[in-house]
Please model this.
Amino acid sequence: MQVGRVVKKQKERGGRSTDEPAWVRYLLVTVALGFLALFLLLPLAAVFAQALEKGWQAYFEALKEPDTLSAIRLTLITAAFCVPLNLFFGIVASWAIAKFNFRGKSFLITLIDLPFSVSPVVSGLIYVLIFGLQGWLGPWLQDHNIKIIFAVPGIILATVFVTFPFVARELIPLMEAQGREEEEAALTLGASGLQTFFRVTFPNIRWGILYGVILCNARAMGEFGAVSVVSGHVRGSTNTIPLQVEILYNEYSYAAAFAVASLLALLALVTLAVKTAAEWKMQQTVTVSEQER
Model:
């Protein structure tokens, strides 16, 4: 009800949330737009301009190069493993944190945030320390002919580590804002745990899930630091798209490097568009939920 009164009051004031003079608002908006144009739009435009510098034929030829196709394929495989794993973990962790009180809850939240505070390079080195040839499990893995570091499993593990907070961090505040009353009512009426989740909880968090999945997928496909440490940079085998861009650029194949980089730029634009739509729908869900209380 309080949120509803605030929204109504803002509408009465023409949608303005403050009483600052018009010139202050316009100045802030201009500065924000100028900053975005300088540090976001200009670099994106430069990427596409460089990628198409030698024409569309050269652009598509660069994308069809075997090593580039291998990098694209490995990037998609990595995302295909990381996103479902992080989706499952994010839902389970956010459900436990938002719906239950237990000892160690704050510690669990801190652990979820850990990849945000640890450098991706350090994340990669952790897996080298554990699974590398001279690592803790290296001799055992070698005896059983299992290769993780400098192979696809290592890339997937490192990417899962750096991306697992994205879904959970989107769902935790959303679930906490919605409370537990609806789930408790469903359980009281005889619904099972799964029925409660899919018929009561899921409709309220579906846009948050989509939002988290989008961010997780974008980071998984664009991760460089951790993947660079564990990949070994084997051409046509363990290079992802960001690593392929680095190799092409270091070999002075600028047009090809920017052509491959444009794929990541396109992914960023699509992510931005879908993220905006999901964020808007998620905000609507939270507002309606709060107004109904």
